[in-house]
């Protein structure tokens, strides 16, 4: 080999090494850009980099398309549910026949003489909203009056303030802070708050002030009135509200210097003649159930010509119980505009839409989610076979001191529990719809006075009844819908106090209601038993975390959190009953043949 060939070999080795390094760098760049081995030169790298950007862009677009498709599906389902809700909701306005015939539509709220204190009026809207957020109050409506934090600033008489203090009612509850100023201002209102939150005083105290003002201006003559009408779903609740008003009226009369206010009670189970005597003298306030009120109005025992204040307490339950026709008939007796207030612990959208049609520029005051369980109640769920319920019931009574409320769906179960506890030496009373009115009042009064430690009842006692110091609520069975469950356990944990509820469930419980129960427990931060944890729900057609608006969560018909309106058991039950009635033969027509 010649000397001339040696440098050529050395250069070749150098070139080979350089090319190896370049190829290694190129390979690393290709890996970084996800390229194939064919992309070798710089132009290819540039175009490849562009292709990678295009690929990433396409991936992002596809991802957005998936999100949009998912959002579109959600919006489509919400639209379908809204149409379904509109098809089953009560859309005809609660208006008098004269108003409907003449096309009368009131545009402005009723004017009152009440004004909040000067420093409250001086608040900015930002200040008022800050106070509401602090108290957990949400409002909707035009020009909502500011919330007020004390009864004194609401300008109630000293006699009323002293009477409230005697009952350990020193400061207003959250619903009262916002609700009372709204009512005193003459505005129509929908009030939504959990059971035991003080809704009754929210409409009773302003009504007393309005009645005092009317009586001072011009005394009620014989047979005149009422000025205020309160309609409730059950006799027990009507008597409870009547007793609260009668107590406050008695306090005003005892103090002297105030005109006498009279309140009448219109409920079934008592002779109409006895109730008519109250209205012969002239009554300022009437507390009634729909059925008996319709009878008294039809018999012209009194009228609603000067009635300017209407309260529908537990409004959603009255409609659910089939009182819609009676309510429409009652509305036909009004002769002029009235201030209308609707209150409940559960106010699904089907009722809100219906209510808004009857109200003038309403203010919606909401403390917590409509249909939510009270956070003051510790909810315990126990699995119990039917044959072991009575034994478990006796064990549950040992959890707390008296007083205890026991709920059962069936009248027969109420009677069996009552007899069993009597045999065990427990002071117990019982009420249900099969007992006459005297026995029902006797049982409730004995329990209220503390003569009985335990009260066994059907859901007749869950509708707004207020018993002091209920330590424990026991559900002998799971109610047919979650609304009743919320009302039941709301008998304890009232007025800021703590309480316990125990609910027996087994395989007979409806799966949809158990799903609602599971969601309700999670919402309230309660402990889930293992048998509820195993229930599905994460793969629902529309999970709650996909919804931007909190109002869209759960069922818009019954407020249950564990299902949608498309598979609402309550709605399905109503439809089944309606279909059955349509298929039922017309017996009256057959009798006429």
TrEMBL record:
Helicase C-terminal domain span: 389-536
Catalysed reactions listed for this entry: ATP + H2O = ADP + phosphate + H(+)
Keyword terms of this UniProt record: ATP-binding, Coiled coil, Helicase, Hydrolase, Metal-binding, Nucleotide-binding, RNA-binding, Zinc, Zinc-finger
Pfam families: DEAD (PF00270), Helicase_C (PF00271)
Record's protein name: RNA helicase
Domain called Helicase ATP-binding: residue spans: 180-365
Assigned EC number: 3.6.4.13
Keyword Ubl conjugation in record: no
Motif (Q motif): 149-177
InterPro entries: DEAD/DEAH_box_helicase_dom (IPR011545), DEADc_DDX41 (IPR044113), Helicase_ATP-bd (IPR014001), Helicase_C-like (IPR001650), P-loop_NTPase (IPR027417), RNA-helicase_DEAD-box_CS (IPR000629), RNA_helicase_DEAD_Q_motif (IPR014014), Znf_CCHC_sf (IPR036875)
Any one annotated GO CC term: P granule
CDD domains, sorted: DEADc_DDX41, SF2_C_DEAD
Example GO molecular function: ATP binding
UniProt cross-references to PANTHER family, sorted A to Z: ATP-DEPENDENT RNA HELICASE DBP3
DEAD-box RNA helicase Q domain ranges (all copies): 149-177
Biological processes per GO annotation: mRNA splicing, via spliceosome
Species, as recorded: Ditylenchus destructor
Basic and acidic residues biased stretches: 1-32
Domain of life: Eukaryota
